[in-house]
Specification:
Length: 171
Amino acid sequence: MTEITDIRPIDFYDETAIMKEINDFAEKYAYADIEHALILSPDGNAYNLTGSEKTVHYDIIGEEALKGSKSIHNHPVEPGKDKADSFSFEDVYTSNKYLEGKQYLVSGIRRDAYEFREYYPVDEIESIWNEALKQAWLTHRINGTIVKFEQQDVLRELGKYLKGFDFYENF
């Protein structure tokens, strides 16, 4: 279940204000035990959402508000850990489907972001994700390393499969 907890006006084209919102969210929710999201929409609104322990659904605000939006959400951190994994397949799938702008994630000490500069038919995204997943696992096998954060590894590979996809670690 996802709930809209606040809607307030924002100047979507004021990059300083947008980054302040993103950084304030990151500070507030880095160690939250359920997922939260902040969607900054070209419609001039900032939407705060509260989800569950495992997910927060952006589509509750509507497709038009999501198109071109920038957003940040958190991934809860297990007790005793300093971060959880990066963006999920569902995160990437949804932002491509709704033609969203740059996406940010906070999880403990983790601060990641990605963006699509080109979008893809939604039925292609899963097979591309799976190809990047196979490559990530192959790289670990070749290097004799263990997988700590599978989604992070996939995101590092995705740019090889998706033209116009950029993944940024430690924004």
